[in-house]
Amino acid sequence: MPYGPQWRLHRRLHTSLLSVQASKAYRRLQDMQSKKLLQDFLYTNNFSEVFYQYTSDVMFTLAYGNGQGKDGSDHQRLHRINEMAMFILKTASFGMTLLDRFPFLDMLPHFVMKWRRMAEDLHYQVKGAYIECCRSGLQSSSWNWSHAAQQRSEAKELPWEDICYSIGELYVAGIHTTKMVLENFIEASVLYPDMVDKAQAELDSVVGTDRLPSFDDMDQLPYIKALISELLRWRTISTIGVPHTVIQNDEYMGYFIPAGATVVANQFGMNMDDTIFEEPAKFNPDRYLQNTELPVSAFGFGRRSCPGSRLAEGSLFIVISRLLWGYKISSSKVNKNLLNESSSIPREATIRVRTPRHQQIIEKEWADSKIDKIDVLGDIRRGLQSNNMAGN
Ligand code: HEM
Predict the structure, then answer these.
(1) Which among 40, 62, 91 has a CA at the least distance from the CA of 323?
(2) What is the DSSP secondary structure assignment for residue 215, as one 8-state letter?
(3) Counting atoms of ligand 1 from 1, which one is nearest the CA of 312?
(4) Ligand 1 centroid, distance to 364 Cα (angstroms)
């Protein structure tokens, strides 16, 4: 969607649902879902699946509430969308590269451009699914983004279908990004055991073994915070950023940039710039402790920067601090010779609880937190109401 009044309305909706206060209120849900994640790791090493469960549960619950449609149909519908989104991420980048090189391809008739027809079909399917899910969200008695959006002024200025699409966009945007960063955390943990030792020493001294780390500990855990910044730098999620269009003629360092030109931020290049990051291929959280001014560009730039960054940071903090607190992470597949290569990603890892005491706490916390999601959403609504932004 190009920059303009419509885009501004969508953006306003997104930023209101993901404001500083709102993102703080959502911590209640992240707290509960991360306890479930810890419990799940007692029985499986399949970290990709557990991370997907966590991110999709958090996003689904915020977007559509506690209900899941008839027989879980909403979840299944959205699961298919997620698979399609991953397909698009892979194929669209290929299509876009060709189009950038040979713009005349864009003028070919539709029946020749198979990928374009596929994309249009997909768009209608996705839109239909988002509208269905929004309908379930509104039928649900619990607080959720569908209810909250309905109360906002943007819902009077945009067609309801567009609002549903906007909420669906948030849902999808929040799942794979956060999951990918968490997978990279597993990679870093098996490749850099010294980092894990340092993080666990910090957690043991601040938190001890009688309770889980919580959001209240954040300021006392500078190494964990530095580790998350380094994780976002070390493995760039969106290597060339999202393409932006220049809306008016501009000049940068003597170069003329005409209106309409596409500008792509070389995020990978920035993150690997050895004039800013010494030995950039190395995973080294200490660099962010030694220089707190070091940039983190993972969430993009300017008007279109990621509106979900605070929610994402909350998830990364609570999941990573709790995983490190409770588990040892290793892999027999690590090839130390590949330490500096991006191909070193271990697709398998062994995730074992650190001690029987840690297991006891993990099980107790999960058993105690088994309250209904409706209660959690009620807490979120009350938290937002005290800031006058609940929506229902
Ligand atoms: C670690 C996790 C995440 C990363 C690394 C990430 C990164 C990004 C990046 C690089 C962009 C493009 C910014 C630009 O164009 O300059 C973006 C856009 C966006 N992100 Fe995120 N994101 C994450 C999590 C989330 C979450 C949790 C949500 C929703 C709750 C979200 C919603 C969005 C939306 C809606 C946009 C489009 C913004 C626009 O075009 O106006 N993201 N994100």
Answers:
(1) 40
(2) G
(3) 27
(4) 35
For residue 184 and ligand 1, the question of a CB distance below 6 A is answered with no
Q: Which CATH class is domain 5-67+140-385?
A: mainly alpha
Digit-coded pLDDT (tens) for 44-87: 999 999 999 999 999 999 999 986 655 566 667 677 677 666 66
Atom number of ligand 1 nearest to Cα 7: 41
Exposure b/e, 146-166, CB count within 10 A at least 16 = b: bbbbbebebbeebeeebbbbb
Q: Give the confidence band of 203 by pLDDT, cuts at 50, 70, 90.
A: very high
Specify the pTM.
Answer: 0.90
Which ligand 1 atom is at minimum distance from the Cα of 17?
30
pLDDT tens readout for residues 245-278? 898 999 999 999 999 998 888 999 999 999 999 9
The finding on whether 242 has its CB within 6 A of some atom of ligand 1 is yes
SS3 (DSSP) at 96: helix
155 lines ligand 1 (CB under 6 A): no
Q: Tell me the β-bridge partners of 263.
A: 244
Regarding the beta carbon of 308 and ligand 1, being less than 6 Å apart is answered yes
Q: How far is the CA of 143 from the centre of ligand 1 (A)?
A: 23
- For the chain, domain boundaries: 5-67+140-385
Q: Residue whose CA is closest, atom 31 of ligand 1?
A: 308
The count of residues in the chain is 392
pLDDT higher at 13 or 265: 13
Q: Is the CB of 306 under 6 A from ligand 1?
A: yes
Residue 107's pLDDT band (cuts 50, 70, 90):
low
Distance, CA of 62 to CA of 29 (rounded, Å): 9
| 292/270 Cα distance (integer angstroms) | 17
